[in-house]
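Course assignment 3, question 2. Fill in each field.
Student: A.L.
Task: Predict the tertiary structure for the chain below.
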Amino acid sequence: MNIYISNLSFKVEDGDLRQLFEEYGEVTSAKVITDKFTGRSRGFGFVEMPDNEASLKAISELNQAEYDGKVLTVNEARPKEDRPKNNNRGFRNNNGGGYGDRQNRRW
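Answer field:
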């Protein structure tokens, strides 16, 4: 089972995440997601565990638990295609402009 963990402290690394979940069973992989430009943690990660029962126990016990000064949110990760798409990202609006309709603004 793939598990999503959010609200991680920026100090938490892959090994820390692995160690936390190994208390509940075998961990296939543990990855803290980092910013591709800065290399800094983005505050969330994923853990894969082969045993569903152990995964569910880890989710149940670690969700809303405090870890490294932060309260974690832990749940089963949804496949990428199941997440709602955000087609309106960034500063674009329905007019296609970068910062809204500048012609109607009074400066």
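Instructor remarks: The first helix runs from residue 14 to 22. The domain at 2-76 is CATH 3.30.70.330 (Alpha-Beta Plaits).
Grade: pending
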